[in-house]
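A further point concerns the way the authors explain their paired sequence and structure data. Nothing conveys this as quickly as seeing an actual entry. An entry of this sort, consisting of the sequence and the corresponding backbone structure tokens, reads as follows:
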Amino acid sequence: MLSRGLMRVPLSKGLFPLGYPLRSFSIKTRLLNYRDTNLNHDSPIEFEPFKNPSNDTTIKIRKPWTIGHTTLEPNFRQGWSPMYVSPSITFISAVKKFSLVLSATIFGVLHVYNGTSLSADLVSNLIQGLAILPVPLVHFFTKDYVTRVFRIYDDSKPQTLENLTTNEKFVFEKLNWTGTNVYNELVYLDGLRLVNPKEFSRLGWVNWKDHELTSNVQRHFYIADEVGGFKMDRLWDIVEKNSGVNNGRFLNDRS
């Protein structure tokens, strides 16, 4: 029996054998009121392609061998959503944090042990000094791990195909040495090359490289292949062609 929009299903029939009440509702209304949820807040709640969700279009980047950040010109803006998201962000961050905890724990235990009469001063001090090794060792292998990639747009120019594919710039996001924060590096697509495994691959933890324009310092990056879809396949194709490598990518031009 239906009364005032309330329907009760008999105990022996229907999908709800316990007789739960079902209220009528509009699927269309529910869908229109739906909002995306993202734990990392990478995308706006309500997507509007020509509106910046954070009302902040400044791009802060870090140059090699510097501590502070540099702000790009106001006509440059970062894409609202990343074109590449690393599949192992959480794991790399956890490894960095664990190395800090492990080093601090070993150092603390040895410091207490060193204060007892049972310890040999030279050996104990040596081991205590080696306790900090996990931090620089982990940082050495993971410092160039790219967590996200964003395209940079120039709002002072029309967003035509020619302008979008000329002098392309990207933001490569990396984790800091503690694994608790991230920083950005400005990368030009024309300068990216593949890393030769015979020269410097850091046991496979780097696969792209470039030269930073202002400091002429060679930088390295790790980008996971087959992640990011068509957009990242295009970047891989261009980087391979810049390096004189043909791995059979299906893209033949930069468009």
Q: What stands out?
A: Residues 85 and 203 are 22 Å apart (CA to CA). The helical segments are 27-32, 89-114, 121-130, 134-142, 161-164, 229-242. The chain has six helices and 13 strands.
